[in-house]
């Protein structure tokens, strides 16, 4: 039975990370084991930035955005020397197991670290991108989509007033998971995501066709990983093809990463936090805890990292039908 574990957040922060840390801490306390927080992800692990956490340390945090443990993307942890230093710090502090809250990069590091040094690690999917295989939803995704959607609703108001075409870029790394519900929920005319090929020419044709049907304002949601280019590039090409179209670009950006987590994210984070600690205590390691079809599953890091979570292609058709 482990006596002491540690939890850290790493990579891009996501709303609900605090709810997950809280669940990890309280589950550890519930099972009578000590828990430490590692500040600034792998970077703090290397430097030995450990803080003892108890139930009170995470009071009043479930509703807070960001991460109380702070986050970082560590270059040094990518070196063998850095990982050796991190391992030495964990051993010196008597840490026997880890809960890693983060995304693909976090689990790539965790998997390598465990293979090299054997510290059992269970991952919690914390990223707004929802691009992790092994869970239907990641912690922070629901909040980020709602934040982006709120922005799109506001953009729609001004687009409509001025008869303009807005190209709205949303985050999501190399996936369209954020873009798709934003397009459907925001009533966008077009969505461009990396998972499907939609050429700029097709966008031009679609806008012309909408124009002929007397539409006067348009929203094109562009995922940041879109292969045709970013929102500025696409907007410029469209403007060249349809000079009379009054175009504007909005990059929603890091607003999507902040704010109080939604109810769905708080619930997911709490479920996963409990599952991560109980998984560790039951001998799980090198896996990510996730929810698939409403059931708790533990997926090997190797699958989480290497397998692609496919986006439902019928969503593209929904956008086409609903924007007619
Ligand atoms: O992974 C979360 C995310 O917000 C991505 O959507 C985006 O590509 C990236 O992080 C931005 O990273 P940074 O905050 O380092 O600019």
Automatic annotation (TrEMBL):
Residue sites binding ADP per the record: 22-26, 156, 187-189, 213, 215-217
Any one Gene Ontology cellular component term annotated for this protein: 6-phosphofructokinase complex
Residues engaged in binding ATP: 12, 73-74, 103-106
Organism phylogeny: Bacteria, Pseudomonadati, Bacteroidota, Cytophagia, Cytophagales
Active site: 129 (proton acceptor)
Ranges of residues in domain Phosphofructokinase: 4-279
Main location: cytoplasm
InterPro entries linked to this entry: ATP_PFK (IPR022953), ATP_PFK_prok-type (IPR012003), PFKA_ATP_prok (IPR012828), Phosphofructokinase_CS (IPR015912), Phosphofructokinase_dom (IPR000023), PKF_sf (IPR035966)
Domain of life assignment: Bacteria
Subcellular location(s) per record: Cytoplasm
Keyword Nucleotide-binding recorded: yes
Enzyme class: transferase
The reaction(s) this protein catalyses: beta-D-fructose 6-phosphate + ATP = beta-D-fructose 1,6-bisphosphate + ADP + H(+)
Family stated for the protein in its record: Belongs to the phosphofructokinase type A (PFKA) family. ATP-dependent PFK group I subfamily. Prokaryotic clade 'B1' sub-subfamily.
Chain's role: Catalyzes the phosphorylation of D-fructose 6-phosphate to fructose 1,6-bisphosphate by ATP, the first committing step of glycolysis.
UniProt xrefs under HAMAP family: Phosphofructokinase_I_B1
Protein name (record): ATP-dependent 6-phosphofructokinase
Originating organism: Hymenobacter psychrotolerans DSM 18569
EC number(s) reported in the record: 2.7.1.11
Binding-site residues for Mg(2+), renumbered to this chain: 104
Residue positions binding substrate: 127-129, 164, 171-173, 224, 248, 254-257
Summary of subunit composition and partner proteins: Homotetramer.
Pathway: Carbohydrate degradation; glycolysis; D-glyceraldehyde 3-phosphate and glycerone phosphate from D-glucose: step 3/4
């Amino acid at each position: 039975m482990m006596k002491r574990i540690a939890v850290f957040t790493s990579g891009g922060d996501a709303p609900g990370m605090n709810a997950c840390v809280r669940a990890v801490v309280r589950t550890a306390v519930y099972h009578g084991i000590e828990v430490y927080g590692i500040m600034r992800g792998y970077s703090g692990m290397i430097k030995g930035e450990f803080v003892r956490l108890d139930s009170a340390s995470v009071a009043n945090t479930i509703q807070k955005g960001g991460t109380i443990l702070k986050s970082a993307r560590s270059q040094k942890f990518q070196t063998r020397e850095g990982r050796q230093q991190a391992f030495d710090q964990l051993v010196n502090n008597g840490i026997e197991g880890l809960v890693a809250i983060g995304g693909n990069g976090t689990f790539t590091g965790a998997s390598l670290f465990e293979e090299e040094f054997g510290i059992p690690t269970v991952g919690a999917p914390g990223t707004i991108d929802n691009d992790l295989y092994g869970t239907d939803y990641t912690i922070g995704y629901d909040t980020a989509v709602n934040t982006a959607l709120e922005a799109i609703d506001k953009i729609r108001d001004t687009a409509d007033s001025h008869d303009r075409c807005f190209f709205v870029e949303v985050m999501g790394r190399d996936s369209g998971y954020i873009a798709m519900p934003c397009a459907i929920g925001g009533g966008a005319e077009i969505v461009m995501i990396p998972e499907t090929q939609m050429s700029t020419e097709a966008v031009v044709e679609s806008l012309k066709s909408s124009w002929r049907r007397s539409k006067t304002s348009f929203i094109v949601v562009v995922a940041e990983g879109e292969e045709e280019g970013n929102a500025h590039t696409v907007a410029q090409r469209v403007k060249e093809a349809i000079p009379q179209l009054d175009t504007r670009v909005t990059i929603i950006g890091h607003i999507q990463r902040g704010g109080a987590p939604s109810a769905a994210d708080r619930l997911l984070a709490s479920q996963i936090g409990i599952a991560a600690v109980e998984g560790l205590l039951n001998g799980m390691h090198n896996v990510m805890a996730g929810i698939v079809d409403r059931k708790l599953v533990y997926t090997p890091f190797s699958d989480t990292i290497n397998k692609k979570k496919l986006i439902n292609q019928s969503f593209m058709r929904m956008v086409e039908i609903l924007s007619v």
